[in-house]
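Input sequence (282 aa), recorded before submission:
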Amino acid sequence: MHMNSPSRSAIRLTRRGRLVLIATGAVVAGTAVAVPLLTWGEEGEKKPTTLVVPEGWRSGQVYEAVDKTLALPAGTTKKAMAKVDLKLPEDAEGNPEGYLFPATYPLEQNGEKATPESLLAAMVDTANKKFNGAPIAAGAQRNAMNVYQAVTIASIVQAEAATEADMGKVARVVFNRLERGMPLQMDSTLNYALNRSTLKTTQADTRIDSPYNSYQRMGLPPTPIDNPGEDAVRAAIAPTPGDWLYFVTVKPGDTRFTADYAEHQRNVAEFNRNQRSASPSK
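Predicted structure, token format:
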């Protein structure tokens, strides 16, 4: 623990949520955001031809989308996980989170119709091609981590960064806190543990017993917390230089990074004022 840092209970590293996401149009895991899930065929057709997996979706959201797209009973794709041999890294221990790569997937190839198993395999194969290539693998090694750890950091970056331009800075905050022996204290990891997305993190939330509670647990969460895109992965292996330890999106388009805790607290207070003024009066 970095002895000059405030206590864990006092620090709030990030405070982001629906207000910022709707205003910026970002796609973040666990948040209901208007995105084109299906690409339809020619005019008049009622049949989807592709499945679009947005950046930042969690595995549960992907499973649900596959079920809906293929008109299968809810839970079918999740059950299919037990029947498909996905080429996941050993560290994943069979959990595909982080490796269901965001992309557009055809529902028919060479006359063969897609199945939950074929779509999941295609997502993981795409992830392996993207992540195990020279740029990503070498970048991870350069930062003294393996590819799976880089993807885990990228998933946090995907969930936390308000804009693509902020991704490198968010990644730097993660590295700086890890290097100083500070807990990450990311609300996005709590949201993952609680299967939600909200900016209303409470003190009780920060005390939940979960390996994804980065307020209580040191280091990275045990798995990625969503399925990040290429921009987030690039940020994870090449973070922007800086000494930042804290950040908060005060209002849409205004994310403030700082190494000074007192300054961060002032920024959080401004965020809270903006939230109160934006809340509908009762």
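Checked by second reader. The longest helix spans residues 261-278.
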